[in-house]
Specification:
The protein has 121 residues and is α+β, with helices and mostly antiparallel strands. It has helices spanning 23-41, 90-106; strands at 47-52, 79-86.
Length: 121
């Protein structure tokens, strides 16, 4: 579903704080941090996570509209609904954490320990 890619270090190589974290992993870590903080500060806020440009498609509007070019009637091709718009629950947050840990273990980032919550935005 998600294929992390190395960030282009370019001129940033060797600078303090630069890592080889993928953009996907970084974005998911930030989303996880926001979910955690929102549950404490505003427990009734609704949040969701929709990924664009994915290989897999998991987003159905249920209305018959949307992109039908790839045969996804009622949905949008290359969009993946990771967390539906709703008040976040423990199950959804755990699933997001497991996804982050799985991505991290496939492509570890030096100096970041996902188990301690470090590296989260």
């Amino acid at each position: 579903m998600l294929a992390p890619q190395e960030l282009d270090g370019g001129d940033e190589r060797g600078k303090k704080g630069s890592t080889s974290a993928s953009a996907v992993l970084t974005a998911l870590q930030c989303a996880y941090g926001v979910l955690q903080s929102r549950i404490i500060s505003n427990p009734n806020d609704m949040m969701g996570i929709l990924l664009f440009g994915t290989e897999a498609t998991k987003f159905d509007t249920g209305g018959g509209g949307g992109g039908t070019a790839g045969g996804t009637a009622g949905g949008y091709e290359h969009c993946y609904l990771l967390l539906d718009l709703d008040i976040p629950d423990a199950e959804g947050i755990k699933a997001l954490k497991n996804l982050i840990e799985g991505l991290y273990h496939e492509h570890p980032v030096p100096g970041v320990d996902v188990n301690s919550g470090g590296g989260m935005c």
